[in-house]
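Problem: given the chain below (145 residues), write out its structure.
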Amino acid sequence: MAVPQETKAPPSLLYMVKQVELAARSRLDELVRPSGITALQYTALTVLERHDGLSAAQLARDSFVTAQSIADLVRSLESRGLIRRERNPRNRRELLILLTEEGRELLGRCAGPVRELEERMVSDLTTHQTEQLRQALSKAWRALS
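Solution.
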């Protein structure tokens, strides 16, 4: 007599999102390591590429790191010449973080491999499914923000 298989619940969406995030971050770390940066540093540089001249607090929020850890990240990137800090002309007490030309060149060198990683991630999806995933993730993020 066959023993009935217990129906297991699928993993939670939160678990699956974390799995994808950890796998993507691991692969991204491998891709950017030869350039001497981490995935977190790469993320911060791409944030500055899209929105140059951010405060440290805003860069921390947009890069998914704590305010405490952004200071070390900024110091490291600045010592490598990938970013620079300037006084905010509207608020002299605030420093703005800007991407340098060297930072832009590093991002340019990483662009192809990172694009290939993203393409690999969605390789089993159609173009329409990829766009649906992008929209669903954006809506999920907005719902939690």
